[in-house]
Amino acid sequence: MANYDAMTTSELEEKRDNLAERMMQSNDTAEIELLSQEIEGIEDILDERDPLAED
């Protein structure tokens, strides 16, 4: 997994969007679960950086 704490907010948002796209195209349940967990981790970091941001 990448060092997301070192990434900028825009890089994190781009990575999250890329992972979401991969998740939508996947038919593998295990891969979807892993991608989902990775996306949640990125969203947690984004929330920590801007806790007032709307979902």
Please report the number of helical segments. 2
Report the major sheet.
none
Give the strand content.
Answer: under 5%
The span between the termini is 24 Å
Shape: elongated
Structural class: mainly alpha
Which radius of gyration do the C-alpha atoms yield? 12 Å
Secondary-structure element order, as H and E?
HH
Mean pLDDT: 91
Total beta strand runs:
0
Fraction of residues in H or I helices: 55-70%
Low-pLDDT residue intervals, each spanning 5 or more residues: none
Oligomer: single chain
Features of the shown structure:
2 helices
Brief account:
It is built from 2 helices and no strands. With 55 residues, it is mostly helical.
Topology:
Blueprint: H1 9-25, H2 29-49
Q: How would you describe this protein?
A:
With 55 residues, this protein is mostly helical. It is built from two helices and no strands. Helix 1 (9-25) runs antiparallel to helix 2. The N and C termini lie far apart (24 Å). The model has no long low-confidence stretch (mean pLDDT 91).
